[in-house]
What does this fold into?
Amino acid sequence: MSGPSTFVPKSALGRWFESRLPIGGLVHSSFIVYPTPRNLNYWWTFGAILSFMLGAQIITGVVLAMHYTPHVDHAFSSVEHIMRDVNWGWFIRYAHSNGASMFFVAVYIHMLRGLYYGSYKAPREVLWILGVIIYLLMMATGFMGYVLPWGQMSFWGATVITNLFSAIPLVGDSITTWLWGGYSVDNPTLNRFFSLHYLLPFMIAGVVILHVWALHVTGQNNPDGVEVKNVERDTLQFTPYATIKDSFAVVCFMIFYAWFIFYTPNILGDADNYIPANPLSTPAHIVPEWYYLPFYAILRAVPSKLGGVILMFGAIAILAFLPWLDTSRVRSAKYRPMYKVFFWAFVLACLGLGFLGSQPPEGGYTIAARLLTLYYFAFFIVIMPLLGLFETPKPMPATIADAVLGKGGSAAAKH
Amino acid sequence: MNRFTTFGLAAALSLGLLGSGANAADDAHGKLPTRQSWSFAGPFGKFDQAQLQRGFQVFREVCSTCHAARYLNFRDLSEEGGPGFSEAQVKALAAEYDIQDGPDDRGEMFKRPGRPADRFPWNYPNPEAAKATLGVVPPDLSLMAKARSYARGFPMILIDALAQYQEHGVDYVYALLNGYSDSKDANHNDYFPGGKIGMAKPLADNRVDYTDGSPKTTQQYAKDVSAFLMWLAEPKLEERKQTGFKAMVFLILFAGLMYLTKKKIWAAAH
Amino acid sequence: MATATMADEPTRRDMLFIATGAAAAVGAGSLAWPLVSQMNPDASTIAAGAPIEVDLKAIPEGGIVTVKWRGKPIFVRHRTKKEIDEAVSAKLADLPDPQTDAARAKKPEWLIVIGVCTHLGCIPLGTQGTRGEYDGWFCPCHGSVYDTSGRIRKGPAPKNLEVPAYAFSSDTKLTIG
It folds into this structure.
């Protein structure tokens, strides 16, 4: 996807086809000769892992849709039918439900990697923003998918999240009614969520293509944050080098994934979702899936309904402005001693918010959630802009080749 | 990269400490069940067929007088990985029940002897009828062992995932059935949130007549029926764990091969 | 010495690549299998396809009753003397799919066939006046004509109407399947 290709097929038939649809050249330039920085570490394999997860979710999802019934009277039973009667149904369903968690594990690592190594900085702003859009679409997809089994948490999760929109002044109530297609979460809601849950992954796939396209225009960032200067010395061909490394990482990730599917398939879920939805009784603790917990904690940290909703969506939206909030000239945290500390404090704050999101919103928990929310936003709005002005970066290697060979910069000092 | 990894671990650990401290406060839901040893726990876990058969007997003679189990079909009882009844036994068992069918040619519903493909029938035609007789609608037992749990808190849940402890639900069920500690109040239960449970003490010594020589005690009944409910909630558990072992062995070998291949290819790059 | 290692090296490397590739193929295959297998009939469908019983007392001579089994119509036909004679007297040489009537009906007065045209799966007509020139069934889709034994006589269908497994559990009870 990066410019015209010099690829010429070997066979006459290949050349005939290529002159009519140059798909071979596209694949050749994007996935074979595409240059990747030599110094990429394993944190750079999560793009491939995410592609694998997207494929796995779409395939298992299409299969589940062959057996699932999106109707309030049959949804729960059809899921149990899949678990009990359909050949390999238990495997496909557990692969899909745990696959959502794995997808988020991978995306969080992918995002934190970008944050640590400054992958959002110029000229990769559009690449980063496309990533934020993918993340938003993933959250919407995951949420609507969780509603489909029509258990207690499905129902009450849907009720709570759709009620967020009622916080919008003037039109809030009309919007929730419109979202529900009724006066509460009910059959019309389930039907449209099923339709959209089926649609959104393909939209994700579309944005992923744009994301990869943008990546191949600017080239990858790398752990040292130094741009490629000499393609010969600084890079390796995508195939076979990145291909085999990514494949190895995907297989390792599959071991992790398989552990959950086969050995602890329900540990990331909530027991309440094995109780059929009951619109007349709310479970004692409404907790979203783990991957939403930090945002749920931010929502509850604010004593005002509208304020909480604004802050929660703001926590995601702010990511899109990151390229302009960071004022540092240096990309990689490897050469930013102060940023490194604030970065890890940010990771801890996110984990802390995640933990607080799973606890009842009372007493010390609320105070802690407020403090961590404060840090979350301060990290972007205060620390990022100021740090660029006050921090003294460590000496950096001049080229990627130097970094790999241990010449120059702090790399030489350490090894 | 190394830095990134170490810090990540440190972050996870310190959060674990934070979590364990905060957890003690979350205990207003009745006593926490104690962990039991089950034949179906762990990566090689299997159901004990004799135990499932006894559990079914308890379920049939005690639980099913009030509770439904709408995802239990007679045919399931002879499926692989289950109680291991023979198909003939299941056929005979199903025939003992009258199943409503119809409408017939005259447009009327009628009763006929059960068949293996039928669902295990409930004593009540609908939840309203159950409520009219019992005062409450007894929850369906099909998924009970997965639909109940108790809070383990943030760091423990990760440890449980690693140690494959996931029998929280069945431990709760077992604890609850043994949790009637007040001899004067049949509705008092140590493990039920709030301490008052609608179901009066269902089990008593000698209530079910075991034929295989197992002790006829409340504890034994509770243990057997809990195991049965676990099977009922997760009938493919054995198949899942056995497939998992094969998948794991394959994936680890495959990862090893991939690693060697990767090294070989990258050798040219250095 | 040097030449020996040179010759050695590619073989060992190739072996590794072949082994890895083979493992990848095995992995992909075993992942694909559940996705294929899930489309086969599930346990509840198989259980629901168990044999069914039909009460023969309710079918008068000359009558045809259609019962549903495994999602298909089964024609249970109480044949008249005339219909039996027609079926028995047909010359095998005249039949596109030669079969004697005795091979298709365990008791002459009862003919049990799956009511699905062997051409492309339509349901042939069998009420009075729509039965076609051989008094059996007529398929309106493409004009296949069946006789009173359910054998194909005319039209594009290649085979006789299929006879399902059945047994008479008593004089008045029929078990299909």
Notes: Residues 109 and 237 of chain A are 24 Å apart (CA to CA). Chain A has two domains: 34-225+233-286, 292-415.
